[in-house]
Write a structure and sequence with these properties.
about 240 residues; mainly beta; Protocatechuate 3,4-Dioxygenase, subunit A; five-stranded mixed beta sheet; 13 strands; binds fe (iii) ion
Amino acid sequence: MLGATEPAETVTRATVPPSVEPEGGNAAIITRRDMLAGVGAGLGVAALSALAFARRDSRLGPGYQFGEVGAPVPGSEVPCTAGTLTSSEPEGPFYTPSAPKRRDIRDPGVSVGVLVLTGRVLDTRCRPLARAVLDFWQTDHNGVYDNQGYRYRGHQYTDVDGRFRLVTVLPQAYTAISIFRTPHIHVKVQGADTPLLTTQLYLPDAEETNARDLGYQPSLAIRYTERDNSSRGATFDFVLARG
Ligand code: FE
């Protein structure tokens, strides 16, 4: 099964000082109270959706270092199309800074519905970005975020070839504060000399739910490379601009 041989990895938690909390702290998070206030103000569903996506990006902050090179990741080469930047997507209301450093973010013992996502972080000339940081967060297999702890959250660094490897479960659709979301994986990506990219990745075989989510972008769909009854292997390359 894919991911069954993922080596044990030491989990460390990034030390992020309070100064890197999202600007405005909790005030920057769209809360249920905000949504209800929007309803009271007579805003329509589209306006409420926009409100939910309007949160400013949280910075990664100094707790995430760029001086570390991730352990080597084996992987096949995926052709890179130079010049096409990866699209950004809203951070949404469920980002938690300071997630542990780990490549396998599954709950212990979860072996069904596994997704192994590999890929590279590249610049616009298809040059790999070593030491780039990727900070992933997503729902569990029930479509639930852990907003108190760090389940299904974790950051990692690319290896010398710009490669990353995430072992997780397939994310699930959910409805939060009246907004329906197709399955997706949130991620923040940054190289040592690139701006921070905040985006979301989608599942290519979730056609029905993808069509119901205005946030879905086909260019952000991962590509399956392997699949069996319990697991999927997939790939996605991020392209960031230097400087
Ligand atoms: Fe989400």
